[in-house]
Design goal:
The protein is 31% helix and 26% strand. It is globular. The longest helix has 23 residues. The protein is α+β, with helices and mostly antiparallel strands and 297 residues long. 49% of the residues are buried. Helix 2 runs antiparallel to helix 3. It has 2 domains: 165 residues, 2-Layer Sandwich (Fructose-1,6-Bisphosphatase, Chain A, domain 1); 118 residues, D-Maltodextrin-Binding Protein, domain 2 (3-Layer(aba) Sandwich). It starts with a helix and ends with a helix. The structure holds 2,5-anhydro-1,6-di-O-phosphono-D-glucitol and manganese (II) ion (MN) (2 copies).
Length: 297
Amino acid sequence: MNLQTYLSSTPPNLAKAILAFAEAVKRIDGKIRTAETGEAGSQNTFGEEQLKLDVLADRIVFEELKKSGVVAIAASEEQSDEIELSKEGEFSAAFDPLDGSSLVDVNLAVGTIFGIWEGKGFIGKSGKEMRAAGYAIYGPRTTFTIAIDSNPVEFTLQTDGDWKLTIEKMEIGEGKMFAPGNLRACAENKEYLTLLDFWAENGYQLRYSGGMVPDVHQILVKGKGVFSYPGSESNPAKLRLIYECAPLAYVIEKAGGASSDLEKSILAKKVEFLDQRTVVCLGSKDEVDRFDKFLTI
Ligand code: AHG
Ligand code: MN
Ligand code: MN
């Protein structure tokens, strides 16, 4: 089955928004294979150096979303404000055009993350109000994972440009695999250090690449494990709510997993401003519970 066929039972305009991301991913994939990995000589709103590829990927996603005609408002990790794309559009889309871009020069896998909300704008809404979310991975294979209203599915880009269904149903159970982000925080965050000891002493398998998308994707493919990115005073949690954490939490929860910011599900968090950051833990229910227990004092 291909992506178009899979989306034939999805409301047509929502399908168009998802297909716009799939088209953008194909174009970004082509650029990643050959474009220069150097800096663009600019910084994004958060003072982070932008790579030429960050800027290129951002432009491609905006172009495809605009072309779709169904997205009213789009917000990107690389832009300070949301942008109106169409008066008639019925959705708002938030995205990280290139997640893990500092891994491109060392040739590790990177991704594109997106979430689609009903209506115009994000402020005051929560992840629970998303209509769909997903991500692409540019690795040895280029894959596109989406969750609409049931378990996530994975498509793989074929040489003829078609997206072929490669995983029909992603489901998360329990198992000992961990992807511990921000270990720098352990110097001050002793609770996190204690959890790290727990994982090390209990036979957990370490699987961490430094790219949030593949690090979370492995939980969905292997059906087990945990990804964490808490903070400390000197090394605060930096992952973004609408561009990274909420879309990935949506996919994880649709697969039967859980998410947490140490107080509640990531999907229950209200968006207060576009650049909002959050502590995040995603994965098997028992592992997310354990994260909450160890880190809540
Ligand atoms: P981005 O490239 O979009 O800025 O985000 C990268 C993120 C994420 O993929 C990863 O989990 C995290 O940064 C790792 O950051 P550190 O290595 O700085 O902890
Ligand atoms: Mn990112
Ligand atoms: Mn990015």
